[in-house]
Specification:
Blueprint: H1 15-42, H2 44-52, H3 61-80, H4 85-109, H5 126-149
GO cellular component, one term: membrane
Keywords: Membrane, Transmembrane, Transmembrane helix
Main location: membrane
């Protein structure tokens, strides 16, 4: 007689814990975008002048200087509202990936790259910027995985 032993010792967390983790990640992502949008808006001239010095995007500097903080605020708002938070996490992930690709591209092709993030984040090295972005992307993907893993809570 054969017996089958199943290992059900998978790491499991409750739905409430998953929901709290997702909410915490949403708030972290939202805080990052509100903080950087605020810094870009309050010191818009510096942000615009920095964009004008980046050859890759200088032709679009005025548009980018207005669009980036608006996009950050819209995504932060999507993350705040439970019914739109999943879309917000996808948008946050895509935007952070685009920022990371921009940083890597600019590091390759630009001689002197100014940091335009705003606030204390400008104190980071370019390697630290990339790691920070990758950490936030990973958090957002983890939150999306938790949301998609268990659809019993609406985030």
């Amino acid at each position: 007689m054969e017996s089958v032993i199943t290992n059900s010792s998978k790491f499991q967390i409750s739905d409430l814990t998953k929901e709290k983790i997702v909410i915490a990640i949403r708030w972290l992502c939202m805080a990052l975008f509100i903080y950087t949008a605020y810094a870009k808006i309050t010191d818009h001239d510096r942000f615009l002048n920095g964009l004008l010095r980046v050859h890759l995007i200088s032709g679009f500097a005025v548009f980018i200087s207005i669009a980036v903080p608006i996009v950050e605020i819209i995504i932060a708002t999507l993350l705040l509202i439970p019914k739109t938070s999943k879309i917000g996490l996808y948008c946050f992930t895509a935007t952070m990936a685009a920022f990371t690709i921009y940083i890597i591209s600019a590091l390759i092709w630009e001689k002197n790259l100014p940091c335009l993030c705003g606030g204390a984040i400008e104190k980071l090295s370019w390697t630290q910027h990339i790691w920070l972005n990758l950490a936030f992307i990973t958090l957002a993907i983890f939150a999306l995985w938790l949301v998609n893993l268990n659809t019993s809570f609406k985030n």
